[in-house]
């Protein structure tokens, strides 16, 4: 069987990298020849989780077609979030938990997408359905992914399945998920030594909304006021990135992981800013707005923006 690469989205987070590793183990057990790779270097949080459970960071690829004819995707399906030459390879499998958009294939494939908090939760169900035992280190990296995506089960994306998966995986991994999870999340909030340019690209995704390209970045912190002191520098970096990449709007969501609140910073035209205000029924003040209770890009940011842009 020809080798396939498995990877998550660009600017990978713990779910994109952790689930790729776990899905590669899963698929190789059933006779596939796969390698987990990444579309970027791991962030601080992901690096912490990888080290905790004894994994090396997957190698980073820029293109796939020069290596393989087929790939498997985790934690994404939208082409603009994938490898640059995704149109030159065959996608044979997708395991995801996001909306399905702009995804087309020439042949049937395995596609599993469930409305849960994390792709690793879907994969945990797949392990159970196949009766495949989950090794301790694989359980640990899957646990880390779910904790990351659900903000330790506090995100509105969290479901009963996520709770069940976390409890089961923590037992296998041999950790207290609450203490480990807080330690891991805090490891990802060290932003003081990073430039604004780096921060707006750490966890950022592009979305096509009714003909507009909207870039949405999220940065987790434990000190929101301190992060907002860098607003002017963030705006400069966002404007430069928008000009270089043709974004119609750039939204930065700064999220306090302890208080479950966010502040939004928005760069764009008067038209797109007005659509942002419509989406959240809030006025931007000096390009910023408080977003109390907002912690999930997938469930609390993308849907209202989609509705406003398409309305």
From TrEMBL:
It is found in: Cytoplasm. The keyword Metal-binding applies. One of its GO terms (molecular function) is inorganic diphosphate phosphatase activity. Binds 2 manganese ions per subunit. Its cofactor is Mn(2+). It comes from the Bacteria. InterPro entries: DDH_dom, DHH_sf, DHHA2, DHHA2_dom_sf, Mn-dep_inorganic_PyrPase. Its EC number is 3.6.1.1. Its main location: cytoplasm. GO terms for cellular component: cytoplasm. Gene3D superfamilies: DHHA2 domain, inorganic pyrophosphatase (n-terminal core). Mn(2+) 1 binds at residues 9, 13, 75. Residues 181-309 form the DHHA2 domain. The keyword Secreted does not apply. SMART domains: DHHA2 (SM01131). It holds the Pfam family DHHA2. Mn(2+) 2 binds at residues 15, 75, 97, 149. Keywords: Cytoplasm, Hydrolase, Manganese, Metal-binding. It catalyses: diphosphate + H2O = 2 phosphate + H(+). HAMAP family: PPase_C. Belongs to the PPase class C family. This is Probable manganese-dependent inorganic pyrophosphatase. The gene is ppaC.
């Amino acid at each position: 069987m020809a080798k396939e690469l498995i990877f998550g989205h660009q600017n990978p987070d713990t779910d994109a990298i952790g689930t790729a590793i776990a899905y590669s183990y899963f698929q190789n057990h059933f006779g596939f020849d796969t390698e987990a790779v990444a579309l970027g270097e791991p962030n601080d949080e992901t690096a912490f989780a990888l080290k905790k459970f004894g994994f090396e960071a997957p190698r980073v690829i820029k293109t796939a077609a020069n290596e393989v004819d087929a790939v498997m995707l985790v934690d994404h399906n939208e082409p603009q979030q994938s490898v640059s030459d995704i149109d030159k390879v065959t996608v044979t499998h997708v395991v995801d938990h996001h909306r399905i958009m702009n995804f087309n294939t020439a042949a049937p494939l395995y596609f599993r997408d469930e409305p849960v908090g994390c792709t690793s939760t879907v994969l945990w169900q797949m392990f159970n359905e196949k009766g495949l035992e989950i090794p301790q280190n694989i359980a640990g990296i899957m646990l880390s992914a779910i904790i990351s995506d659900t903000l330790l089960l506090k995100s509105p994306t969290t479901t009963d399945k996520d709770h069940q998966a976390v409890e089961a995986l923590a037992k296998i991994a041999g950790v207290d998920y609450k203490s480990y999870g807080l330690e891991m999340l805090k490891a990802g909030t060290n932003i003081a030594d990073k430039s604004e340019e780096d921060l707006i690209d750490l966890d950022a995704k592009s979305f096509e909304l009714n003909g507009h390209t909207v870039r949405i970045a999220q940065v987790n912190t434990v000190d929101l006021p301190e992060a907002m002191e860098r607003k002017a520098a963030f705006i400069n970096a966002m404007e430069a990135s928008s000009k270089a990449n043709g974004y119609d709007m750039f939204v930065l969501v700064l999220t306090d992981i302890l208080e479950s609140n966010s502040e939004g910073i928005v760069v764009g035209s008067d038209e797109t800013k007005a659509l942002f205000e419509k989406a959240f029924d809030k006025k931007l003040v000096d390009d910023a707005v408080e977003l109390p209770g907002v912690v999930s890009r997938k469930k609390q940011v993308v849907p209202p923006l989609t509705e406003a842009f398409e309305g």
